[in-house]
Specification:
The protein has 204 residues and is α/β, with parallel strands linked by helices. The chain has 2 domains: 6-17 and 87-202, HAD superfamily/HAD-like (Rossmann fold, 3-Layer(aba) Sandwich); 20-85, Putative phosphatase, domain 2 (DNA polymerase, domain 1, Orthogonal Bundle). 44% of the residues lie in helices and 17% in strands. Helix 1 (20-29) packs antiparallel against helix 5 and helix 3 runs antiparallel to helix 4.
Length: 204
Amino acid sequence: MQPIKNIIFDLGGVFIDIHYQKTEDAFIDLGVTDFHTLFTQHHASDIFELLETGKLSPEAFYDAFRATTQLSLSNEQIKTAWNAMLGNFGMEKIEWLRFIRSKYNIFLFSNTNQIHYDGFMEIYREQTGREDFNDHFIKAYYSQHIGVRKPYPESFQYILKEQGLNVSETLFIDDTLKNIEGAKAVGLQTIHLNAPVSVIELGL
């Protein structure tokens, strides 16, 4: 392992708690009994992948979701159920970022979407009184903004190229194994973060 100069962090499961089951339960309560076939931590159906790569606006997603499920749900019902998975930020991890950015060039890369983005930014503001979570990083990359998502190799290559990073000096940390495998494929050093281990405990 070469010395690390750069770290690319995932968001969900690393800095903010994500409760996939809460979203599945919320959709089941709305009558979407097969939600697990549409979206899980490890799988995204076409409409969710399009949402997460910015190819569907939130409004177009709501329409597509209604068409897919054949249910007459309001935009607000879909939004509330979809955001149910968003938990709280770990405040000790947020404070730890002040320390780790003094040692490494740090970046964020999250598979997300504009609905969740707006939701977790509001959670961050409510928890911290600060305006922008992205300020902790040299740059935060979100799948809906760059048009590609993990684990596709081109998503990692996009960041490496834009930032001029040496792949062998760059560490990627994520809680989803598929994303770790995608990062390894382009030559990144990786750590698969397994709950209940915290990113703070990695000894970086």
